[in-house]
Queue: 3 jobs
Job 1
Amino acid sequence: MLRWKTGRWGFNGLFGTLRSGPIHSRNGNDQRYVSDVSDFENRLQKNAKQRFKWAEREKVTAFRIYDLDMPEWPFAVDWYEGFAHVMEYPRRKQVRDGSIDEARIEVVRATAAALQMVPEKIFTKTHEKRPWGRGQYERLTTTSTLVNVKEHGLTFECNLSDYLDTGLFLDHRVTRARVRQEAKGKRFLNLFAYTGSFTVHALAGGAAETTTVDLSNTYCDWAERNFKLNGFAAGEEHRVIRADVLGWLEDARGPFDLIVLDPPSFSSSKKKMGRRFEVQRDHRWLIEHARGLLSPTGTLYFSTNFLGFELDARFKDAQPLDSLPGDFRRSVHQCWRFLGPVGVADGVDRSPARPARDHEHRKDQHPPKRR
Ligand SMILES: C[S@@+](CC[C@H](N)C(=O)[O-])C[C@H]1O[C@@H](n2cnc3c(N)ncnc32)[C@H](O)[C@@H]1O
């Protein structure tokens, strides 16, 4: 159950309501102390000092500065080439009593002060519980604040205002670099490709052919813009395919030498797919099918951000990877490498159930927890 909000804070409105120290609930009878915002500001400033130097060495202009370092300030602050993207992770109680709204105001002011920027360049998003239905990748506004960021000499278009996510998942930077290193001369497949950032790295690494698959026209177009920004073009050798990966995999033909499989935790677009996908339940089917497309010496990277995810124990040859970039404190994803087109654990059947179509789901089935 997740719901998202988005917003940008104007300078005047912001400073009119500033406060720090004890926070009162709306009805005023539940006073409790929350950490002074100056603790957050100091931490952010300290992190930023070290992180900006690190980013210069790493040649990246989009990176994380604060990663829920202090539980009293449940925010992630990312830098995007002169802009800040602040994601809040409120607890239910904070939403109910409104304290998160006050905390957000303080955090925006403290971020502006610590990073010496105007609040107009700070974008806030809320990650909170919401019912099934609308997807994480839907548009929230049409303001379109775009910025091109750099990652190891490559350029990526990011949109800070319109969606919950910006177009570049910073936590996958290490895996993208790995793909680039391994891509030379390879046939590369990017499944659930989003804005095609893995493909851009594969292209930069010299991939011979690339196939980029995503359900969304918006993201397929965005991927093509990212190709262009880096001097590449979609075409016969570098195909961008708008398709449901689940259906596409049923008919797909390989072989591919390098595959990235990074599905969403849930996908429930009935209109487009006619079925629901849940990574915990369906990953075995997905990995099996994608792996079936590998060349004999091929490599598949599988990654998920689903909190509490457990890889099917039958995948005995899965190699867990340490893929979290240095600017992240929390383990926000898990990633494994699979070598070769072999099935799951030796001797285990090769035909796990495919993700069910919608009418096959039981009505009383409860949606699992998501973060
Ligand atoms: C977790 S993101 C992938 C992130 C991407 N690998 C990256 O690192 O940039 C999920 C993507 O899956 C796409 N998607 C969701 N369900 C899909 C489906 N059934 N088939 C194809 N794409 C799907 C969404 O449009 C979104 O772009």
Job 2
Amino acid sequence: MTAETRDALAYVCAHEERIRADLIDEGAGPEALDLLLAAAREDRCVETALEALHDALLASGDVLGVFGRGIRAVPTPLGVNRTPAGEIVYRCPGELCARTSWPEPGALPRCSVSGGPLRRDRL
Ligand SMILES: [Zn+2]
């Protein structure tokens, strides 16, 4: 899987609910999103499904789609300039997507792409 594919999956993972709502609002329906999630969870090739979702988003007025969002970097908490080594982050289980998140109070964050909880890791 290429870095571009993992980045696109990370975008989908972090914004699944919004993508779904946008597709439904624009009358496209969530099929392209559901097909992609099914492909990722069943360990099938996701490239074709990603392209289809990208095209569906472009057709519904999202000019960026799922590619080129550039969200691979770990989000930096306000007031912290450098990435603290050894800090705990949460990553996609199975490393399907390139998403990382900081721990937050409440439930363990879940990966929308794989359907499982994010796994704890250290920077
Ligand atoms: Zn994920």
Job 3
Amino acid sequence: MIRFENVKKVYPGTGKSPDIVALQNVNLHIGKGEFVFVLGHSGAGKSTFLKLILREEAATEGRVIVNGWDLSTIKNREIPYLRRGLGVVFQDFRLIPTMTAYENVAFAMRVTNIPEKQIKRRVPYVLNLVGLRDKAYSLPQELSGGEQQRIALARALVHSPPIIIADEPTGNIDPELGVEIMELLQAINTVGTTVVVVTHERDLALRFHKRVITIDHGEVVADAPAAPRRRRTPAEAAAPTAAQRGSAPGQPARPARPAAARTGRPAAPRHTGAAKGGEQP
Ligand SMILES: Nc1ncnc2c1ncn2[C@@H]1O[C@H](COP(=O)(O)OP(=O)(O)OP(=O)(O)O)[C@@H](O)[C@H]1O
Ligand SMILES: [Mg+2]
């Protein structure tokens, strides 16, 4: 899926400023279906790592291979195809302010010339997946930060990419909403999508017992595999879940909670029989 072989990235200096070695000696492999955190302090090289995967920047030395594309030899006209296989949730969401939630997601399909009929079927499906079908006609400014982020996630999911990358997914939202987006990413991972979460938050990276790749001063200084899931103690098993705590007895859990996060798997499409072979998240 993603392979770095002896990768070095140097940003050239500009006469007065020196060359900056943003990454060096990076060797790693992220396999299909993995859920990986990339952890590092400010300036460690996390965004550079993402930019190399997206081919917004080219490696100075070494090879980056993503979804079978060798990014040291990829042609400019092939880069859109590379990017179609990568769903990215940017830290600042990058939604178009004058477009509704629906249009923001649909736009990502229109620019790749997907037929309107397919767009009309797919967009409600992904909005439902992130629990925001009822906000389809809201503008970004009418949505909370967490909702905007889920729209950004819906947009990232629209092409059913094999890899989802989230840059600081909890950075711009309340901690509680951060948990929601992480649950959603886990649900997406459960159905086979590779998920890479970039963060500077150590607690976040450790909380989920997933693989954690730590970058420091441009080098991978630790690569800790996912911890085997511990069996819950009887007391933990008996404790109410977050969803149960959030609702009065006999009442359903909060409706704002994304369907996929509640069930641990993506919500089923509401339409029936329309999708050939079923929709992919
Ligand atoms: N376009 C650029 N030109 C020159 N230097 C750059 C450029 N982009 C990043 N750098 C430098 O490369 C190093 C790594 O930066 P990068 O943006 O990858 O860090 P980061 O881990 O994403 O940090 P943050 O958490 O603050 O976003 C830093 O020293 C930074 O100043
Ligand atoms: Mg960064």
